[in-house]
Specification:
Helix 1 runs antiparallel to helix 2, helix 2 crosses helix 6 and helix 3 packs across helix 5. The longest helix has 25 residues. The protein is 63% helix and 7% strand. The protein has one domain: Winged helix-like DNA-binding domain superfamily/Winged helix DNA-binding domain (Arc Repressor Mutant, subunit A, Orthogonal Bundle), CATH 1.10.10. It is built from seven helices and three strands, in the order αααβααββαα. The relative contact order is 0.09. It has 177 residues and is mainly alpha-helical. The chain has a three-stranded antiparallel sheet.
């Protein structure tokens, strides 16, 4: 198979970290009649990109003793009204399972980046709040995260970024139904 036979490959383009995966997807298509090549390629590409993006961000976050999961939790709290969330809201915002949110929160509590207290409205309900230390840390590492995201998406124009985002929201809305 050459680059001209496969629309996912560009003629003359250098091989990238996805080329081997893409080649295996093509072999699978040849072996399985009716195999949804473009669906499979896009699904694997999204997963591949997410892993590489996570690895780049983890390298940035390591000096802060954070990883992409704890970073995401901090950012969801930072972007919330009064920088507070309940554990279930944090679970929904991060896509993490409740048991993992408990572990994440325990880690962030130990680091002094969040605090946990009973809700004023319902004392059975727990509220999580970003501490001033957590807020300062978020503001400290953000420029480095922005540089990492620029490394991932910087070749795309603002219009292309909006287009990709819009296109990915379409299957997301279908999954959310």
């Amino acid at each position: 198979m050459n680059g001209d036979d496969d629309p996912g490959r560009h003629s003359g383009a250098r091989e990238d970290s996805f080329s081997d995966v893409e080649h295996r997807i093509e072999i699978t298509r040849q072996r399985l009649p009716g195999y949804p090549l473009e669906h499979a390629r896009l699904a694997r590409l999204i997963t591949h990109m997410q892993k590489l993006q996570t690895d780049i961000c983890n390298a940035v976050l390591k000096p802060y003793e954070l990883n992409y999961v704890t970073y995401t939790a901090l950012m969801m709290m930072y972007g919330s009204e009064e920088q507070t969330l309940t554990p279930s809201e944090l679970s929904n915002a991060t896509g993490e399972k409740p048991t993992n949110v408990t572990r994440i929160c325990d880690e962030l509590l130990r680091m002094g980046l969040i605090e946990r207290y009973p809700s004023v409205e319902d004392r059975r309900r727990v509220v999580l709040r970003l501490t001033p230390k957590g807020e300062r840390l978020v503001e400290q590492f953000q420029p480095k995260i922005w540089q990492a995201l620029d490394k991932v998406y910087g070749q795309l124009s603002q219009a292309e970024l909006r287009q990709v985002t819009g296109l990915l929201r379409r299957p997301l809305s279908r999954l959310d139904e």
